[in-house]
Specification:
The protein is of the alpha/beta class and about 270 residues long. It is built from 9 helices and 9 strands. Strands 3-2-1-4-5-9-8 form a 7-stranded mixed β-sheet, sandwiched between helices.
């Protein structure tokens, strides 16, 4: 299933006004379990007074928006390979008056290197799309200041994002743009060490409660939208019924230390 066209359709619906765009970001914060985990790690970060932050693979810009709220003195650069998303985000952040401290640019992370610039590098659901991952980790390391933190959210090798669903004799991934199914914990730690990082911590997210929440809040609705856009009309009623359950499951996933899970949260320091 092609996930990107669905995301673009949803983005276009909520991009009709700044109020709808803010609502879209809020909904993503509430529905996406990874947002719960990232939010906790950002609140724990011992940030300097005026941090420089890189959002590496910014997508719709929801994490840049959250960080610009959380760190009011921060200077944030958000980069993505998709020109239309970069232009769209620059326009939105300009309209809400944040373009003096937030900028979006087109960049290829395999070539991106701004030595000793950033206190924090955030990478959410990006590394599973990039073949040359070790080169990107080296670029992150080079671009970070001493004692800077790298924060990664990515699928694990325990079935992250249903990268391969088996239907009959065929393999049809719910998200089929990935170049790898996910990372083994020791694998990603070793790759980060080889890039120069120290103090590397990795833990599972999307354990049993989180995986169930993801199916309720993301997989099933997006599959319905893939069938017909008429389901846009049904979505509000669907979420009225399922969100309380999903929110409880997300909270449980955040509180439980999982022995396994379909996602990873990784922090590493320079």
């Amino acid at each position: 299933m092609q996930y990107d066209p669905i995301k673009r359709s949803l983005g276009s619906v909520f991009n009709k006004s700044t109020s709808l765009r803010r609502l879209f970001y809020r909904l993503l914060d509430l529905l996406l379990l990874r947002s719960w985990h990232i939010r906790r790690e950002l609140k724990r970060w011992n940030n300097p007074e005026k941090p420089h932050i890189l959002d590496a693979g910014s997508g719709f810009g929801q994490y840049t928006y959250r960080m610009s709220n959380l760190f009011r003195q921060a200077r944030i650069k958000a980069v993505d390979v998709k020109e239309e998303q970069v232009a769209d985000c620059n326009g939105f952040f300009g309209r809400i008056g944040r373009n003096e401290r937030v900028v979006f640019e087109v960049a290829d992370l395999t070539r991106f290197d701004e030595p000793s610039t950033y206190d924090l590098v955030l990478s959410v659901d990006v590394m599973e799309h990039i073949e040359e991952d070790v080169q990107v980790f080296r670029n992150f390391y080079s671009s970070m200041k001493e004692n800077g933190m790298l924060l990664i959210s990515t699928p694990s090798d325990q079935g992250g994002s249903d990268a391969h669903d088996h239907e009959g004799d065929e393999v049809s991934g719910f998200i089929d743009e990935h170049v790898r199914d996910g990372y083994n914990i020791e694998e990603i730690k070793e790759k980060l060490r080889s890039a120069g990082f120290r103090e590397i911590y990795a833990r599972y997210q999307y354990g049993k409660p989180g995986s169930l929440s993801w199916r309720l809040s993301m997989k099933y609705p997006i599959k319905l939208l893939g069938v017909s856009k008429i389901f846009f009309v049904v979505l509000p009623f669907y979420y009225l019924l399922t969100f309380p359950v999903s929110a409880l499951l997300n909270w449980l996933d955040l509180k439980i230390e999982h022995r396994t899970g379909t996602g990873l949260i990784v922090t590493a320091f320079k």
